[in-house]
Write a structure and sequence with these properties.
The complex is a heterodimer of chains A (391) and B (278).
Chain A (H helix, E strand, L loop, with lengths): L2 E6 H11 L4 E4 L6 H13 L5 E4 L3 H13 L4 E5 L1 H16 L5 E6 L13 H4 L7 E4 L3 H16 L7 E6 L7 E6 L2 H7 L23 H33 L6 E5 L5 E5 L3 H14 L4 E6 L1 E3 L3 H7 L5 E6 L10 H10 L7 E6 L9 H12 L8 E2 L8
Parallel strand pairs in A: 2-3, 2-4, 4-5, 5-7, 6-7, 10-11, 10-13, 13-14, 14-15
Antiparallel strand pairs in A: 1-8, 6-12, 9-11
Helix pairs in contact in A: 1-2, 1-6, 3-4, 6-8, 9-12
Chain B lengths: L1 H10 L16 H14 L7 E5 L7 H4 L3 E4 L5 H11 L4 E7 H7 L1 H10 L3 E7 L2 E2 L5 E2 L23 H8 L3 E6 L3 H12 L5 E6 L3 H5 L7 H11 E3 H6 L7 E8 L5 H14 L6
Parallel strand pairs in B: 1-2, 1-3, 3-4, 4-8, 7-8, 9-10
Antiparallel strand pairs in B: 5-6, 7-10
Helix pairs in contact in B: 2-8, 5-6, 6-7
Classes of the chains: A alpha/beta (391), B alpha/beta (278).
Chain lengths: 391, 278
């Protein structure tokens, strides 16, 4: 039943990709994604992984080559971060629009300017509307497990969509964690070989991505929307199937701390584990604190999130991205839309924190809790920990 | 030595952390020195100099020099420089890009900057590898050599930067090396004194990411390799056996006006006719 090793999380992700028997890896170097792709190139060169490795000339080319390979019927993987994801932007819509399954790891990193190689969610939040399934890992094991699940979800005939597994740059990608690596046979049983529904085939010629005139464009987008929304039960089913096979359970939304607490933190990504410690300490101090962790971001798991927040009066929503000029941060914005007009909707307090690699500590979460409790966190949002550099 | 150090100090930002960020044995500091000496020799006021750098090890030069500088995105230094030069043709615009930066993600911009002959000097710092991201193969990684993403040896051919710039229409094309620092100064000065698009390929060692994986035992061996390999073009062309040799020096020198000069001429012609643009 697998083996437990200490492994850098990037290498654990590469292990997952190897176990998934991908056919094509196409990537361009960008920190902090590089270790994943380097490891895959070693697997290919050593014969451990029978795949094509394409070291392309930019991320735009990486995603384009990935799209081409997917259209040819291959199981495809790539990874990127930050500016690299931004450079892929144009092609990301085309991949989902053409309903091409593939898996991409985004080692989340802040966007320039100023240049930052460190972690936040600014890169992925600029790509909310690309029509990909998007999920966030909190730790190394989850990064490996969700990568395996992502192939199964993306390739499911009810889905046929590309999928992003977000792992926080450095905080996850570059730390060594104890990780259970499943046996190849176990993975093969869980994830059968990819059988594309449509591919470029001389016997059955098709055209991918032709012009969508006004008479059909709306319908094509409607079809994509239905596919993305319809992916949710499949994600749930695949995660449940993974849990049954590997004994590690993942849900679309997780709860932590006191169930039914009046004040809940809402987190996404690795910050969730720091917040869990804070919630544990708050509970030990007798506080009415809990936490809801969003794992699946697209499609947004509305019912699951509402159920996880039942009875809450205040949500302290942590956003690791700033949307300048917007009403609030992207996650809070999503949640305000979700709760609008619902009777008994909780107050949504939005804290923008952890930008560009800034740590958010257990103590700071507890400060946020105290401020939220005393009504001092008001307004549409607040940027946490901004220091004056005026001299 | 003391005099040279003082000269450099006049052109470096004093609030920066020293020593430089570059690894021991890296040649990019010599490129930085050559740039500073060239600006000084050409008597260009610091405030007239613009350095636009891409992303990569060599891009860090922009943070150290006391000119107008922009640290652009990966690959886009030449496009930013094009905008700067067209908007303010009186500025002396120079870009610093690595091989990955200039030839891979920014390769399209390089050939178009050469084709439109914009009045920019381009330093292409070629160390055969993506150094900053940890040693992946680049478009100049020599065929068969080892990097983290070519563990069985590079299977793709590498670009000849000089021939590419020549074919794309650059006004001036030069190649130098950091081992031949004095000669490099001369090439950089020459490139900076001429109209239109002038490119200098600078061969420089990356021991940390390239050398260690390719049987170089020390940075000294890499400098020795440069010494043995880089051959003045005039000598190179007379060699019967060119194996293991790479020519350096002046490859192309045309005197076509730069794009910004053509625009100025167009405006002048319109003004002479009494039209718009005066």
């Amino acid at each position: 039943m697998g083996k437990r090793v200490g492994l850098e999380v990037s290498l654990a992700v590469a292990e997952a990709v190897k176990l998934a028997n991908v056919d094509v890896v196409s990537a361009y170097p960008i920190t902090p994604q590089t270790h994943i792709v380097e490891e895959l190139s070693v697997y290919v060169a050593s014969g451990e992984l029978d795949a094509e490795f394409i070291p392309v000339e930019s991320e735009h080319s990486a995603m384009s080559a990935a799209l081409g390979a997917a259209a040819a019927g291959a199981r495809v993987y790539t990874a990127t971060a930050s500016q690299g994801l931004a450079l892929m932007h144009e092609i990301l819509f085309i991949v989902s629009g053409m309903r091409m399954p593939m898996v991409m790891t985004v080692a989340n990193r802040a966007l320039s300017a100023p240049i930052s190689i460190w972690n936040d969610h600014g890169d992925i939040m600029a790509e909310r509307d690309i029509g990909w399934i998007q999920i966030f890992a909190e730790n190394g094991q989850e990064a490996l497990d969700l990568t395996l699940c992502a192939f199964k979800i993306a390739e499911d005939k009810r889905v046929l969509l590309p999928m992003i597994v977000n792992i926080d740059g450095f905080t996850l990608s570059h730390v060594i964690e104890p990780v259970i690596i499943p046996d190849h046979a176990e993975v093969d049983a869980f994830l059968p070989p990819y059988q594309p529904v449509l591919k470029l085939d001389t016997q059955n010629p098709v055209t991918f991505g032709p012009v969508g005139v006004p008479e059909v464009y709306t319908e094509a987008r409607k079809q994509l929307e239905q596919a993305v929304i319809g992916a949710k039960p499949v994600v749930d089913e695949v995660l449940a199937g993974f849990g049954a096979a590997f004994d590690r359970q993942y849900k679309l939304v997780e709860q932590n701390g006191k169930i039914g607490a009046k004040t809940l933190f809402v987190t996404m990504g690795s910050l969730g584990e720091t917040c869990m410690t804070a919630v544990d300490e708050l509970m030990a101090e007798g506080q009415d604190a809990g936490q809801t962790r969003i794992r699946l971001w697209r499609p947004f798991p509305e019912e699951e999130f509402l159920a996880a927040c039942a009875g809450a009066e205040k949500l302290v929503v942590i956003d690791r991205a700033l949307s300048p000029g917007a009403v609030c941060g992207p996650v809070a914005s999503e949640l305000k839309s979700l709760f609008y007009g619902r009777p008994g909707a909780p107050e949504i307090i939005n804290v923008i924190a952890g930008l560009g690699g800034r740590d958010v500590t257990v103590r700071e979460f507890k400060e946020m809790f105290a401020l939220a409790g005393s009504g001092k966190l008001s307004g549409n949002y607040m940027m946490w920990g901004v220091e004056s550099h005026a001299s | 030595m003391a005099e040279v150090t003082q000269l450099i100090h006049q052109y470096l930002r004093h609030n920066k952390k020293f020593p430089l960020v570059f690894c021991p044995g890296c040649g990019i500091g010599i490129v930085l020195g050559s740039l500073v000496r060239s600006v000084h020799a050409l008597d260009i006021p610091k405030d007239d100099m613009v350095v636009v750098a891409g992303i990569g090890c060599s891009g860090r030069i922009a943070a150290y020099v006391d000119f107008n500088t922009v640290h652009a995105t990966h690959g886009r230094a030449l496009t930013l420089a094009t905008g700067i030069k067209m908007a303010s043709p009186h500025l002396r615009v120079l870009t610093v890009m690595g091989d990955g930066d200039a030839l891979s993600i920014g390769g399209n911009h390089l050939i178009h900057a050469a084709r439109r002959n914009i009045g920019v000097t381009a330093l292409v710092v070629n160390n055969f590898i993506y150094g900053m991201t940890g040693g992946q193969c680049s478009p100049t990684t020599p065929f068969g050599s080892y990097t983290h993403t070519s563990p069985q040896g590079q299977m793709e051919k590498s670009f000849d930067v000089v021939e590419m710039a020549r074919a794309a229409g650059a006004n001036g094309v030069y190649r130098g090396s950091v081992f031949h620092a004095k000669a490099l100064d001369g090439l950089v000065q020459r490139a900076m004194s001429r109209p239109g698009f002038n490119l200098v390929e600078v061969m420089t060692p990356c021991f940390t990411q390239y050398g260690r994986g390719n049987r170089f035992r020390s940075p000294v061996e890499m400098f020795q390799w440069l010494k043995d390999t880089m051959t003045p073009r005039e000598v190179y062309e007379k060699l019967e056996d060119k194996t293991g040799k790479l020519p350096m020096g002046v490859f192309v020198e045309h005197d076509e006006p730069g794009l910004e000069q053509r625009h100025a001429a167009m405006r002048q012609a319109l003004a002479d006719k009494g039209g718009a643009g005066s």
